[in-house]
Amino acid sequence: MENTSTRRSGQVLLVWGLLVVAANLRASLTGVGPLLDQVQADLGLAPAVAGLLNTLPLLAFAALSPMVPRLAAKWGADRLLGGALVVLALGIAIRWLPTAVGLFAGTVLIGAGIAVGNVLLPSLIKRDFPTKVGLLTSAYATVMGGVAAVASGVAVPISEFAPGGWSTALGCWVFFAVVAVLLWLPQMRVPRPAAPARGGHRLPWGSGLAWAVTAFMGLQSLGFYVVVTWLPQVFQDNGVSPAAAGWLLFLFQAVAVLTSLAVPGAMRWARDQRTLAASCSAVLFLGYLGLFLAPGWALLWSVVLGLGGGACLVLALAFISLRAQDATVAGALSAMAQSIGYLLAAVGPVVFGLLHTVSSGWRAPLVLMCAAAAAQTIVALLAGRGTVRAAGQVADPVPSPAEQASTRSP
After folding, report:
1. Greater confidence, 230 or 4?
2. 84 and 113 in contact (C-beta within 8 Å)?
3. CA–CA separation, 40 vs 270, rounded Å?
4. What is the pLDDT of residue 8?
5. DSSP structure string for 8-52
6. 245, 299 contact by CB (below 8 A)
7. Where residue 213 sits, what CATH number does that domain have?
8. pLDDT of 287-331, one tens digit each?
């Protein structure tokens, strides 16, 4: 009885640790956009240089994600995640310094720390809660998105009232990172069984299913970062005030967070996720098409994009765990999907903006997003079923028993 109670307490602490880690994976990024004008004016940065504050973390994700499985195999996933949280806290603290050097150096460290967390969380969920993948993925995506939305909303008020202005608004998130470090310390001391050496740390570049999961992750990431970067400007150019455009972006994120809570229930009743993922991707297509045909209905399209975007984020993260044979393969698949995915996410807003400049309007960029959502709908039919195995093994199109249980677990 005592062992059972201790085990349950350990699992509860682990879940809390995972959720607090998730709370730190977006907040230090989404708070930058609303403050960009202040930062640029105070430090005298050119617009292109200031834009790097949003691009550098995504490039760090793309560059570092493939290295994470080998580092985890060498040092242990729990210790590696603890080290990444320390790097994240250090980066936020350095960015609190109101200098260009501190700003960019801190941003690089933040990108490095988050990159490791992005890759490891799906692997840890697969390892420790193999029958609760859908539920816990939804929980951590909801926490991550909710805190990110709050961070973007409170950034300007904090900069106006707190000593230090924008630097305090960016640096205050160090306290949450320190809390995450402290909550994760017990996990770094828990002995874990060594993962079987079956080549699972090698990225599954030769798996068609892995590429489908990667494409789904990349296309939904591209859509999210295009929306958070450009949606307010699209609305403003169609007659919406800047303040209202900002609230519409908050509405998009709030709807996405609420939608992510409903995904586990939908997954529980499905044999696989093909229909659900394709339907949610089609909702995104409808949102982009609506912006193209009737941009004046800004409120409606903010809600529609939030409905599709929130569900697709949870599904993209869940695919990493559900499609993997075990936790080791989940780490490798996570590294592959997030490396390519965030590379697309970094390129997407740039291409969207270039199309706007070349065409002198938003119609061509929105056609691009409709095409991306259509491609995502097709890819969803491939990524929603099957198993990616360790390097050298054949992918199994039939869901494993653990996968079937995880999609139906309450």
Report:
1. 230
2. yes
3. 49
4. 67
5. HHHHHHHHHHHHHHHHTTTHHHHTTGGGHHHHHHHHT--HHHHHH
6. no
7. 1.20.1250.20
8. 999 999 998 899 999 999 999 999 999 999 889 888 888 888 888
What are the pLDDT digits (tens) for 27-50?
Answer: 888 888 778 778 888 888 876 677
- Given its phi and psi angles, is residue 70 left (phi above 0), alpha (psi -120 to 50 degrees) or beta? alpha
Among all chains, which residue has been given the structure tokens 């607090």? 20
Residue of 216, 14, 211, 232 whose CA lies nearest to 121: 14
Task: Please check whether residue 88 is in contact with residue 177, taking contact to mean a CB–CB distance below 8 angstroms.
Answer: yes
Q: What is the DSSP letter of 65?
A: G
Here the tokens at position 163 are: 């000593």
User: What does the pLDDT read at residue 215?
Assistant: 95
Rounded to the nearest 10°, the torsion over CA 305, 266, 333, 124 is 110
Q: What is the C-alpha separation between 93 and 160, in angstroms, rounded? A: 20
Rounded Cα distance, 279 and 320, in Å: 19
Range of the domain at 382: 2-408
Look up the pTM and report it.
0.80
Name the CA radius of gyration of the chain, rounded.
21
Q: Which residues 6+ apart lie within 8 Å of 75 measured at CB?
A: 83
Identity at 356, one-letter amino acid code: H
Distance (Å, whole) CA 234 – CA 249 = 11
Q: Is the pLDDT of residue 219 over 90?
A: yes
